[in-house]
């Protein structure tokens, strides 16, 4: 029984760690999910295997009756020359409507989605991280942002302890002809 209990505790801690907030990062205190829904363009990111080689990346959020958000991430695979899409669900973590959500694209497994900057009241620019500083996204309502907006993002990310040496600025231009 002790082994079963230890495995259950370890599994719970692992799953909680994946939905936690990185030390020193504070999610925005209030997120209006209705205003957040719609299309966001990925301006920059720290790359991961699930997005490797993707350009023209967008995230579409749609508010559901239960308060969760359906998430459709879409990007163009430049090697395969085809669109790639993943559908998931985002839910608020804990009570309230802070910028701390958990998102799942793979059944019962969730990962943190932490909005630590959102231009309020406009909801035009957002800075997102995961459960640690290996995850970072800069999202905008438009496919391009000003140099000043990019500089503000970089400054804030560096101040929050992100290593930007591997930062990718996402190509949001037209899809190349075949």
From TrEMBL:
The keyword RNA-binding does not apply. Coiled coil: none annotated. Keywords: Cell outer membrane, Lipid-binding, Lipoprotein, Membrane. Residues 31-172 form the Lipocalin/cytosolic fatty-acid binding domain. It is found in: Cell outer membrane. Signal peptide: none annotated. It comes from the Bacteria. Pfam families: Lipocalin_2. PANTHER family: APOLIPOPROTEIN D (PTHR10612:SF34). Involved in the storage or transport of lipids necessary for membrane maintenance under stressful conditions. Displays a binding preference for lysophospholipids. Belongs to the calycin superfamily. Lipocalin family. Homodimer. This is Outer membrane lipoprotein Blc. It comes from Marinobacter qingdaonensis.
């Amino acid at each position: 029984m002790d082994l079963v209990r230890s495995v259950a505790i370890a599994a719970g801690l692992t799953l909680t760690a994946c939905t936690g907030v990185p030390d020193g990062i504070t999610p925005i205190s209030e997120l209006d999910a209705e205003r957040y829904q719609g299309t966001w363009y990925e301006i920059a990111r720290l790359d991961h295997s699930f997005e490797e080689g993707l350009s023209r990346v967008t995230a579409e959020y749609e508010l559901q009756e239960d308060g969760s958000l359906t998430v459709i991430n879409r990007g163009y695979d430049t090697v395969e020359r085809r669109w790639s899409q993943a559908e998931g669900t985002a839910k608020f973590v804990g009570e309230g409507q802070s910028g701390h959500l958990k998102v799942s694209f793979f059944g019962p497994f969730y990962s943190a989605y932490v909005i630590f900057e959102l231009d309020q009241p406009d909801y035009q620019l957002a800075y997102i991280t995961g459960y640690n500083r290996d995850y970072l996204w800069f999202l905008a309502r438009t496919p391009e942002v000003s140099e000043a907006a990019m500089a503000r993002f970089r400054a804030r990310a560096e101040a929050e302890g992100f290593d930007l040496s591997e930062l990718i600025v996402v190509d949001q231009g037209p899809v190349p002809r075949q």
